[in-house]
Specification:
single chain; alpha/beta; Rossmann fold; 2 domains
């Protein structure tokens, strides 16, 4: 029970990978401060990877493991469900929740969705997978304008859209720190760049930087430790590649969580990691490396307006730039509240609405989502039918293979049995 005597509010926070855990946990912390009982859930029937160290890095002691169907059931018994999973998993949970709501007396929770980092691809499909959320946390003003246009084109409600900013960021960007550069960090990404040759190039240039600036500590921060995994799977771990590259002692590998290490960093380099946004937020000089081109596949096109696009040669020469004021305004909001607080304010507003007036219910009543749910139900039925057919086929196959005792007896025993039967 809460202090006022009313039942304690409950929230499920659902994720599969460390970046998703970081996102849902930033919201979960704010919900916990308001008295919510928070349960952290990992999806059992989807690919997932969360090590004990990754949980510890995010301040989580334990997580539960539930299937999508179990999450739907648990969700309709909860007040809030924060989905930090992929768009496809969100759409599946939405459709199955709507099916459960229409076939039982269950009520949907307040669904909270968003993007755990910079949006670099699948902008339209990614939004539509999330469009039924009661609180759709939007990271930037440019994203909000895009989503509103998509929604209007399909007659979808936009009341769930909340310009919150990325919840792992501070309320406003801190003033740029201009102290002498002593420590430089390169925020690596699992699949950017993808080819082994390009990755080797990046690490060779880091070695060049370390050679040129022997008085500076140059840190290569891989996305995860050897043996761990994340949403985007790397083929070869950076440590393995770095072993084959001559480099000075001031180039080192470090796995300290980015939030913990940022206060010690004077310059952050990356191709397109969300860590670049975090470093800007904390007033760290930042550069997005363009040597391999500005391409959608590299994700660095999302930073074109930042004013921070640099080549390795420019960075090595200390030819650095400041972030664009207009770009900062689009990604950081100076109203005194941090992004996670904005999301929780929107959650509380949604909880006060009658269920049928919430964005989820209104979205599910649109022609677009009626058809989406119908297609999802059809696919579920086909999948169940296919699974049953496979079970029956396997059972039939096993029966056909089963032999009687006479089929496996040696011929000599068969003959003795026949003689015995004739005599008797």
């Amino acid at each position: 029970m809460s202090a006022a005597g009313s039942p304690q509010r409950t929230a499920l926070l659902v994720c599969s990978f460390d970046s998703q855990l970081k996102w849902v946990h930033s919201i979960g912390q704010k919900l916990s401060e308001q008295g919510f009982q928070c349960r952290y859930i990992v999806v059992a029937d989807k690919r997932s990877a969360l090590s004990k160290q990754q949980l510890s890095d995010n301040g989580i002691d334990e997580v539960e493991t539930l299937t999508v169907d179990q999450i739907v059931i648990a969700g309709t018994s909860s007040d809030v469900v924060v989905l930090g999973v992929t768009g496809g998993a969100m759409a599946e949970i939405f459709a199955k929740t709507q099916t459960r709501v229409t076939s039982t007396s269950a009520h949907p929770p307040v669904f909270v969705v968003g993007w755990v980092g910079i949006i670099t691809h699948s902008i339209v499909s990614g939004y539509l997978d999330r469009a039924a959320g009661d609180v759709i946390a939007v990271n930037a003003g440019s994203d909000l304008r895009t989503f509103e246009q998509i929604a209007h084109s399909l007659d979808l409600p936009t009341t769930g859209l909340v310009l919150s900013g990325l919840p792992i960021l501070p309320a406003t960007a801190s003033p740029l720190r201009r102290s002498p550069i002593k420590t430089v960090l390169f925020a690596d990404q699992p699949t950017i760049p993808k080819s082994a040759s390009d990755r080797r190039y990046v690490y060779e240039r880091l070695a060049d930087y370390a050679v040129r600036h022997p008085d500076r500590k140059v840190i290569l921060k891989p996305r995860h430790r050897p043996g761990e995994d994340t949403l985007h799977q790397m083929k070869v771990h950076p440590e393995e590649i770095l072993k084959t590259i001559p480099h000075p002692d001031n180039l080192v590998v470090d796995y300290t969580p980015i939030v913990e290490i940022l206060p010690t960093i004077d310059l952050l380099l990356t191709i397109s990691s969300t860590a670049g946004l975090e470093s800007i937020g904390y007033g760290v000089r930042t550069a997005f490396i363009t040597d391999l081109g500005v391409r959608e596949v590299h994700g660095n096109h999302a930073f074109l307006g930042s004013g921070l696009m640099r080549t390795f040669d420019q960075v090595i020469d200390d030819n650095l730039t400041d972030p664009s004021p207009e770009w900062l305004k689009d990604n950081f909001f100076a109203d005194g509240s941090d992004p996670a607080e904005r999301i929780v304010v929107a959650i509380n507003k949604a909880l006060q609405l009658p269920v049928d007036q919430r964005p989820f219910s209104k979205a599910m009543a649109t022609d677009y989502f009626v058809s989406q749910v119908a297609v999802a139900q059809r696919r579920d039925g086909e999948a169940a039918s296919s699974s049953q057919q496979k079970v029956r086929a396997q059972a039939s196959k096993s029966t056909t293979k089963r032999k009687s005792i006479k089929d496996v007896l040696p011929q000599s025993l068969k003959d003795r049995a026949k003689r015995f039967l004739r005599k008797n």
